[in-house]
Design goal:
It contains five helices and seven strands. The chain is an alpha/beta fold. It binds guanosine-5'-triphosphate and magnesium ion. InterPro entries: G_ENGB_dom (IPR030393), GTP-bd (IPR006073), GTP-bd_ribosome_bio_YsxC (IPR019987), P-loop_NTPase (IPR027417).
Amino acid sequence: MIIKEAKFICSNTEVAKCPETNLPEYAFIGRSNVGKSSLINMLTERSKLAKTSSLPGKTQLINHFLINENWYLVDLPGYGWARVSQTSREKWSKMVKAYLRNRKNLACVFLLIDSRLEPQKSDLDFIQLLGEMGVPFVLVFTKSDKQSIQKTQANIAGFKRALLQTWEELPPLYVTSSAEKNGREELLQFIEQTNVE
Ligand code: GTP
Ligand code: MG
């Protein structure tokens, strides 16, 4: 797919204020600092579309980007950052749950997982929540440039084993590096295939 246009539309904290539309949208979620905003920039080939930072907690709002006037990418704030207060954690949880529950045009969630880490409880808990809510999702293992292919594959295998303890089937799974632009075509192809044009 060719990205002809990628436009920032709006940021807000409430699902009720998100753009009114029937166009399908794909939301990026995962632990703080996992690389959600960077992946949006890599996919759209616009390095400054979504704001990124080396410090966790950069994205705080629900951010809508309209692609080719035809579908949305949504950048969400991350979870699992140790130094976040209980109040912020609860605010995050309320906002994201409301978004997942009520956003009618949500086609799929891209759940980003740091490919360098062993299975994290916060990720497994979030997958559980998506399952309970019946939200379709795929797993995207990020930052694969940071280590050897063998190490990435070993961590993914560990993650699959952890998932298979509670799930009978595994979701689609992708490996990406925003730094090296790996996985771009695969993700865009997935979007193209599921996009109801
Ligand atoms: P929050 O908005 O805080 O939840 O973080 P985020 O998930 O949006 O992460 P962000 O895209 O801001 O990236 C966090 C840091 O990781 C930045 O310093 C990025 O440059 C870096 N980063 C993201 N993706 C990659 C990658 O594929 N490879 C490498 N080497 N660094 C990456
Ligand atoms: Mg971000």
